[in-house]
Amino acid sequence: MDDALIIAGRRFGSRLILGTGGFTNHEILARALAASETEMCTVALRRLDPGARGSILDVLDRAGVAVLPNTAGCFTARDAVTTAHLAREAFGTSWIKLEVIGDDRTLLPDAVELLAAAETLVDEDFVVLPYTTDDPVLARRLEDVGCAAVMPLGSPIGSGMGICNPYNLSIILERAGVPVVLDAGVGTASDAALALELGCDAVLCASAISRAQDPVAMARAVNLAVQAGALAGGAGRIPRRRYAEASTPEAGTPVFAPASTPAGNPAQASA
Amino acid sequence: MRLMVNGQERALPDGATVQALVCELGMAEGGRGVAVAVDGEVVPRSQWPESALRPGARVEVLTAVQGG
User: What residues in A contact B40, CB-CB < 8 Å?
Assistant: First the structure.
């Protein structure tokens, strides 16, 4: 795997996309940004609060990261498309993390509305990065309508349950012709490492970092995990087997005395 | 005239523009990170100075916040 992540022709040195939701203040966010070494962060659009102090955009500008607006909170394709238009106006970017939620409790995507919104936005020249279920068929449909990446969940948003269905994710990865970004479900660094080991191109991570006891330390941990996972995935892991396979050669093993094999062990094993 | 801004009734001078409203809400001239929809329709930034608001309009003035 090359060091760079490329989405819609744009090159990213980091395979970690940071979600900014959940940080208790801008100062911790800024320090987590630095520790994560991310090059792109999500933001949301909400009603202007005239009393709010400081803009998150200033924090992201100072860190030199790209802004990826999301459509969080949208339950219909129509609302998501309108939100994408507003985001393009607000941030001057046609990149959009497309979320169309189907259920308040699970925050799982609404497949029908998601696909409809994706198709509309691609037609309007948006760079669409859809948050999707881990359904390989839906992932393929999203790619077919022209999404620049697909972003399947590992488990529900903020659940921290990691990758619940690595088999589905593997099928998505086998077939995908666009980058696959694991979005949602990461609970700790090892989940992010596993995503990259399985072959994901990147991880989008918010709560695991922002809601950790020490968000800055977790940002660094996930950063390193993503790098380790990408390296390990490219290096090629050994197959899993039921029984041990000695790494020390058997040839040349000394024999000190006859019948030294402990009772019950049919053969002497070398470790 | 009275209209709804972010879900709350608000009084503005007759003929006030989107630009005037955005300024009144304390946003900088450029309004970076701000987007406006009137009655569900996005008003492009370039049209803020000319877009006159109508009485009873439902206006959403949005800005960037933290979000995953």
Answer: 82
